[in-house]
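INFO  loader      accepted 1 record
INFO  loader      residues=79
INFO  predictor   begin
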Amino acid sequence: MRLEVQQYLYEQQPELRQFIRQHPNWYRKLSRDPSQISLLEKEANQFYGRTFPQRVEKMQESLGLIMMVMEMLKMGQNT
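INFO  predictor   done
INFO  writer      dumping tokens
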């Protein structure tokens, strides 16, 4: 892997470095074409659940859980 890509991963994006360790095919891809780093970042964000749809889904799940707890509390007060 090229030195500038290694420096970027070690200094600025240690989480991407961990992602590459879990997905070793990226070593080969980045060695051949370092411009694919943006594609690596997109794939890592999707893997870690940081895309907008994944965040919305996570928020909806949390909101659903809160609503369920509120309904349970409301039912507990009625008895």
